[in-house]
Write a structure and sequence with these properties.
By secondary structure, the protein is of the alpha+beta class. It has helices at 4-27, 64-94; strands at 29-34, 39-44, 49-54. Helices cover 51% and strands 17% of the residues.
């Protein structure tokens, strides 16, 4: 039989490490490129859009800035909806069991 105190300490350490990892992921930026570099989208490690850059040759003069902002907003709106749906489905799976703050499934 496992020592309950030891298990609780390990769970707490894992939760602390998960919170650290979440913070690290927020700082990471990753850029995806398409069209031979004509379109670039940068996301955080948590999947939130930070920026979008469209080569001006693809759109009319002066239209790129607004289009880039709209694309970033649409990506983040979709991501927010995915997160909400995921939380709802996970709540159904866990029977409404509330996880400790910062702890998310899947681990």
């Amino acid at each position: 039989m496992l020592n309950m105190g030891k298990m609780m300490k390990q769970a707490q350490q894992m939760q602390e490490r998960m919170q650290e990892l979440q913070g690290e992921l927020e700082k990471i930026e990753i850029t995806g490129v398409s069209g031979g570099g004509m379109v670039k989208v940068t996301l955080t490690g948590k999947g939130m859009a930070k920026s979008c850059v469209i080569d001006p040759s693809l759109v009319g003069e002066g239209d790129a800035d607004m289009l880039e902002d709209l694309i970033v907003a649409a990506i983040n709106d979709a991501r927010s909806k995915v997160d909400t749906l995921s939380s709802e489905k996970m709540s159904e799976l866990t029977g409404g069991l509330q996880l400790p703050p910062g702890m998310q499934l899947p681990f």
